[in-house]
Design brief:
Helix content: 25-40%
Structural class: alpha+beta
Strand order of the largest sheet: 1-2-4-3
Shape: globular
CATH class of the largest domain: Mainly Alpha
Number of domains: 2
Distance between the termini: 31 Å
Strand content: 5-15%
Radius of gyration: 19 Å
Largest sheet: 4 strands, antiparallel
Order of helices and strands: EEHEEEHHEEEEHHHHH
CATH architecture of the largest domain: Orthogonal Bundle
Length: about 270
Amino acid sequence: MCTTPKESKGELVAIKVFDCWTKPERHQAFLEEIAFLQACPFHPAILRVFDKGSYKGYSTNNQNAPFVVMEYLPQTLRGAMREGRLSLVTKVSYAIQLLSALVFLDSRNPKAVHRDIKPENILIKGGACVLGNFGLLKRISDLGARDLNDMESLKASLGHGMPARYRTPDLVDYLNGGPMPTPKSDVFQLGLVLTELFTGRNPHKAYSDIRNPVELEPLRQIPGSHGGSVEALLRRMLEMDISKRDDAGKIIDGWEGVFRDVVDSAMALEGRAF
Protein backbone atom coordinates (compact mmCIF):
# COMPACT_ATOMS: atom_id res chain seq x y z
CA MET A 1 0.00 0.00 0.00
CA CYS A 2 1.33 3.44 -0.89
CA THR A 3 -0.09 6.91 -1.37
CA THR A 4 0.26 9.31 -4.23
CA PRO A 5 -1.26 12.71 -5.05
CA LYS A 6 -4.46 12.51 -7.11
CA GLU A 7 -3.70 15.21 -9.67
CA SER A 8 -7.26 16.02 -10.66
CA LYS A 9 -8.30 17.10 -7.16
CA GLY A 10 -5.03 17.49 -5.30
CA GLU A 11 -5.95 14.85 -2.71
CA LEU A 12 -4.09 11.83 -1.42
CA VAL A 13 -5.13 8.41 -2.64
CA ALA A 14 -4.14 4.89 -1.63
CA ILE A 15 -2.91 2.25 -4.08
CA LYS A 16 -3.56 -1.39 -3.23
CA VAL A 17 -1.51 -3.88 -5.28
CA PHE A 18 -2.24 -7.61 -5.50
CA ASP A 19 0.68 -10.03 -5.12
CA CYS A 20 -0.58 -13.36 -3.78
CA TRP A 21 -0.22 -15.58 -6.82
CA THR A 22 -0.10 -18.82 -4.82
CA LYS A 23 -3.84 -18.41 -4.16
CA PRO A 24 -5.69 -17.98 -7.50
CA GLU A 25 -9.02 -17.61 -5.69
CA ARG A 26 -7.67 -14.52 -3.93
CA HIS A 27 -6.75 -13.00 -7.28
CA GLN A 28 -10.32 -13.50 -8.44
CA ALA A 29 -11.67 -12.09 -5.18
CA PHE A 30 -9.45 -9.00 -5.61
CA LEU A 31 -10.82 -8.40 -9.11
CA GLU A 32 -14.40 -8.92 -7.90
CA GLU A 33 -13.83 -6.47 -5.05
CA ILE A 34 -12.67 -3.81 -7.52
CA ALA A 35 -15.57 -4.46 -9.88
CA PHE A 36 -18.13 -4.22 -7.08
CA LEU A 37 -16.76 -0.96 -5.68
CA GLN A 38 -16.44 0.63 -9.11
CA ALA A 39 -20.05 -0.26 -9.91
CA CYS A 40 -21.40 1.11 -6.63
CA PRO A 41 -23.11 4.49 -6.59
CA PHE A 42 -21.42 6.87 -4.17
CA HIS A 43 -22.14 6.20 -0.51
CA PRO A 44 -20.25 8.16 2.17
CA ALA A 45 -19.68 5.07 4.34
CA ILE A 46 -18.42 2.81 1.52
CA LEU A 47 -14.78 3.05 0.41
CA ARG A 48 -14.48 4.92 -2.88
CA VAL A 49 -12.51 3.51 -5.82
CA PHE A 50 -11.17 5.95 -8.42
CA ASP A 51 -9.32 3.76 -10.90
CA LYS A 52 -7.67 0.40 -11.53
CA GLY A 53 -4.81 -0.97 -13.61
CA SER A 54 -1.94 -3.44 -13.68
CA TYR A 55 1.74 -3.05 -12.83
CA LYS A 56 4.29 -5.08 -14.74
CA GLY A 57 7.24 -4.45 -12.47
CA TYR A 58 5.71 -5.55 -9.16
CA SER A 59 4.80 -9.21 -9.64
CA THR A 60 7.19 -11.93 -8.47
CA ASN A 61 6.13 -14.38 -11.20
CA ASN A 62 6.34 -12.16 -14.31
CA GLN A 63 2.58 -11.58 -14.40
CA ASN A 64 1.10 -8.13 -14.41
CA ALA A 65 -0.10 -7.34 -10.89
CA PRO A 66 -3.55 -5.69 -10.70
CA PHE A 67 -3.90 -2.62 -8.53
CA VAL A 68 -6.71 -0.32 -7.45
CA VAL A 69 -6.62 3.40 -6.65
CA MET A 70 -8.81 4.22 -3.64
CA GLU A 71 -9.53 7.12 -1.34
CA TYR A 72 -6.96 7.48 1.41
CA LEU A 73 -8.20 7.33 4.98
CA PRO A 74 -5.36 7.61 7.50
CA GLN A 75 -6.58 5.56 10.45
CA THR A 76 -8.45 2.37 11.28
CA LEU A 77 -11.10 2.06 13.95
CA ARG A 78 -8.73 -0.30 15.77
CA GLY A 79 -6.16 2.47 16.04
CA ALA A 80 -8.73 4.98 17.26
CA MET A 81 -10.01 2.53 19.87
CA ARG A 82 -6.48 2.00 21.17
CA GLU A 83 -6.02 5.75 21.56
CA GLY A 84 -9.14 5.86 23.74
CA ARG A 85 -10.20 9.39 22.82
CA LEU A 86 -13.54 8.76 21.11
CA SER A 87 -16.49 10.53 22.69
CA LEU A 88 -19.88 8.91 23.13
CA VAL A 89 -21.34 11.15 20.42
CA THR A 90 -18.60 10.09 18.00
CA LYS A 91 -19.09 6.39 18.78
CA VAL A 92 -22.84 6.58 18.16
CA SER A 93 -22.19 8.55 14.97
CA TYR A 94 -19.83 5.80 13.77
CA ALA A 95 -22.47 3.17 14.53
CA ILE A 96 -25.04 5.00 12.39
CA GLN A 97 -22.61 5.50 9.50
CA LEU A 98 -21.63 1.82 9.46
CA LEU A 99 -25.24 0.67 9.67
CA SER A 100 -26.05 2.95 6.74
CA ALA A 101 -23.36 1.08 4.79
CA LEU A 102 -25.07 -2.23 5.63
CA VAL A 103 -28.44 -0.82 4.55
CA PHE A 104 -26.77 0.14 1.27
CA LEU A 105 -25.31 -3.36 0.74
CA ASP A 106 -28.70 -4.89 1.56
CA SER A 107 -30.31 -2.68 -1.09
CA ARG A 108 -28.05 -3.88 -3.93
CA ASN A 109 -29.50 -6.17 -6.60
CA PRO A 110 -28.43 -8.83 -5.90
CA LYS A 111 -27.91 -8.19 -2.19
CA ALA A 112 -24.31 -8.14 -0.94
CA VAL A 113 -22.80 -9.47 2.30
CA HIS A 114 -19.45 -8.04 3.44
CA ARG A 115 -18.51 -10.94 5.80
CA ASP A 116 -15.28 -9.33 7.06
CA ILE A 117 -16.39 -6.50 9.34
CA LYS A 118 -13.76 -5.86 12.00
CA PRO A 119 -12.04 -2.75 13.39
CA GLU A 120 -9.06 -3.21 11.05
CA ASN A 121 -11.36 -2.96 8.01
CA ILE A 122 -13.14 0.19 9.19
CA LEU A 123 -11.39 3.43 8.21
CA ILE A 124 -11.88 6.81 9.80
CA LYS A 125 -10.97 10.40 9.08
CA GLY A 126 -12.24 12.88 11.61
CA GLY A 127 -15.97 12.35 11.91
CA ALA A 128 -16.18 10.12 8.83
CA CYS A 129 -16.33 6.34 9.27
CA VAL A 130 -16.00 4.14 6.17
CA LEU A 131 -16.33 0.41 5.58
CA GLY A 132 -13.42 -0.98 3.55
CA ASN A 133 -11.74 -4.23 2.45
CA PHE A 134 -14.41 -6.05 0.47
CA GLY A 135 -12.24 -9.08 -0.29
CA LEU A 136 -14.73 -11.55 1.26
CA LEU A 137 -17.79 -9.86 -0.25
CA LYS A 138 -20.46 -12.26 -1.52
CA ARG A 139 -23.31 -11.37 -3.85
CA ILE A 140 -26.46 -13.32 -3.03
CA SER A 141 -27.37 -14.17 -6.61
CA ASP A 142 -27.97 -17.86 -5.99
CA LEU A 143 -28.83 -18.89 -2.45
CA GLY A 144 -28.55 -22.56 -3.35
CA ALA A 145 -25.00 -22.42 -4.73
CA ARG A 146 -22.08 -23.77 -2.74
CA ASP A 147 -18.69 -22.44 -3.79
CA LEU A 148 -15.90 -24.66 -2.46
CA ASN A 149 -13.23 -22.01 -3.09
CA ASP A 150 -15.34 -19.50 -1.19
CA MET A 151 -15.70 -21.86 1.75
CA GLU A 152 -11.96 -22.54 1.81
CA SER A 153 -11.30 -18.80 1.88
CA LEU A 154 -13.59 -18.42 4.88
CA LYS A 155 -11.90 -21.30 6.69
CA ALA A 156 -8.42 -19.80 6.26
CA SER A 157 -7.09 -19.11 9.74
CA LEU A 158 -4.93 -16.11 8.88
CA GLY A 159 -5.18 -13.02 6.73
CA HIS A 160 -7.83 -13.53 4.09
CA GLY A 161 -10.15 -15.83 6.04
CA MET A 162 -13.14 -15.16 8.26
CA PRO A 163 -12.03 -12.84 11.11
CA ALA A 164 -11.32 -15.10 14.08
CA ARG A 165 -13.05 -13.10 16.83
CA TYR A 166 -15.78 -11.74 14.58
CA ARG A 167 -17.49 -14.95 13.46
CA THR A 168 -21.26 -15.02 13.16
CA PRO A 169 -23.68 -17.91 13.71
CA ASP A 170 -24.69 -17.52 10.06
CA LEU A 171 -21.12 -17.91 8.74
CA VAL A 172 -20.45 -20.90 10.97
CA ASP A 173 -23.68 -22.54 9.84
CA TYR A 174 -22.63 -21.97 6.21
CA LEU A 175 -19.27 -23.68 6.83
CA ASN A 176 -21.12 -26.61 8.38
CA GLY A 177 -23.32 -27.12 5.33
CA GLY A 178 -26.07 -24.58 6.00
CA PRO A 179 -27.43 -21.84 3.71
CA MET A 180 -25.45 -18.89 2.46
CA PRO A 181 -25.44 -16.01 4.98
CA THR A 182 -27.75 -13.07 4.39
CA PRO A 183 -27.06 -9.39 5.16
CA LYS A 184 -28.21 -10.08 8.73
CA SER A 185 -24.85 -11.81 9.23
CA ASP A 186 -23.18 -8.42 8.76
CA VAL A 187 -25.49 -6.96 11.43
CA PHE A 188 -24.20 -9.53 13.94
CA GLN A 189 -20.59 -8.95 12.93
CA LEU A 190 -20.96 -5.19 13.27
CA GLY A 191 -22.64 -5.81 16.62
CA LEU A 192 -19.43 -7.47 17.85
CA VAL A 193 -17.39 -4.48 16.66
CA LEU A 194 -19.72 -1.96 18.28
CA THR A 195 -19.79 -3.92 21.53
CA GLU A 196 -16.01 -3.70 21.61
CA LEU A 197 -16.21 0.01 20.77
CA PHE A 198 -18.64 0.81 23.61
CA THR A 199 -17.48 -1.65 26.29
CA GLY A 200 -13.79 -2.14 25.50
CA ARG A 201 -14.19 -5.90 25.04
CA ASN A 202 -15.22 -8.17 22.18
CA PRO A 203 -17.70 -10.64 23.74
CA HIS A 204 -16.85 -13.45 21.29
CA LYS A 205 -15.55 -16.45 23.28
CA ALA A 206 -12.42 -18.33 22.25
CA TYR A 207 -12.86 -21.57 20.30
CA SER A 208 -10.77 -24.50 19.08
CA ASP A 209 -12.22 -24.91 15.57
CA ILE A 210 -13.63 -22.25 13.26
CA ARG A 211 -16.69 -24.48 12.75
CA ASN A 212 -17.51 -24.48 16.47
CA PRO A 213 -20.73 -22.67 17.48
CA VAL A 214 -20.40 -18.98 18.29
CA GLU A 215 -20.61 -18.27 22.02
CA LEU A 216 -20.63 -14.84 23.66
CA GLU A 217 -19.53 -13.59 27.05
CA PRO A 218 -22.07 -11.47 28.98
CA LEU A 219 -21.96 -7.87 27.82
CA ARG A 220 -20.17 -5.46 30.10
CA GLN A 221 -22.31 -2.72 31.55
CA ILE A 222 -22.07 0.58 29.68
CA PRO A 223 -21.91 3.49 32.13
CA GLY A 224 -23.86 6.70 31.84
CA SER A 225 -27.48 7.66 31.33
CA HIS A 226 -27.48 6.39 27.74
CA GLY A 227 -25.75 3.09 28.49
CA GLY A 228 -28.97 1.10 28.79
CA SER A 229 -30.24 2.27 25.41
CA VAL A 230 -26.95 1.43 23.70
CA GLU A 231 -26.81 -1.99 25.37
CA ALA A 232 -30.35 -2.80 24.21
CA LEU A 233 -29.41 -2.02 20.60
CA LEU A 234 -26.26 -4.14 20.83
CA ARG A 235 -28.31 -7.08 22.11
CA ARG A 236 -30.66 -6.76 19.14
CA MET A 237 -27.69 -6.89 16.77
CA LEU A 238 -26.17 -9.89 18.61
CA GLU A 239 -29.34 -11.98 18.48
CA MET A 240 -28.14 -15.54 17.81
CA ASP A 241 -31.37 -16.59 16.07
CA ILE A 242 -31.31 -15.08 12.58
CA SER A 243 -35.10 -15.26 12.34
CA LYS A 244 -35.32 -12.94 15.37
CA ARG A 245 -32.42 -10.64 14.44
CA ASP A 246 -33.44 -7.31 12.92
CA ASP A 247 -31.96 -6.16 9.64
CA ALA A 248 -29.84 -3.02 9.43
CA GLY A 249 -32.75 -0.87 8.25
CA LYS A 250 -34.72 -1.55 11.43
CA ILE A 251 -31.73 -1.28 13.78
CA ILE A 252 -30.54 2.07 12.47
CA ASP A 253 -33.72 3.85 13.60
CA GLY A 254 -32.94 3.01 17.23
CA TRP A 255 -29.37 4.28 16.91
CA GLU A 256 -30.58 7.55 15.39
CA GLY A 257 -32.83 8.03 18.41
CA VAL A 258 -29.92 7.46 20.79
CA PHE A 259 -27.82 9.89 18.75
CA ARG A 260 -30.38 12.66 19.19
CA ASP A 261 -30.52 12.03 22.94
CA VAL A 262 -26.73 11.96 23.27
CA VAL A 263 -26.34 15.18 21.29
CA ASP A 264 -28.98 16.90 23.44
CA SER A 265 -27.17 15.80 26.61
CA ALA A 266 -23.81 16.97 25.29
CA MET A 267 -25.21 20.34 24.27
CA ALA A 268 -26.80 20.81 27.68
CA LEU A 269 -23.60 19.92 29.56
CA GLU A 270 -20.86 21.33 27.33
CA GLY A 271 -22.56 23.60 24.81
CA ARG A 272 -21.33 21.46 21.91
CA ALA A 273 -21.67 17.88 20.66
CA PHE A 274 -18.34 17.30 18.85
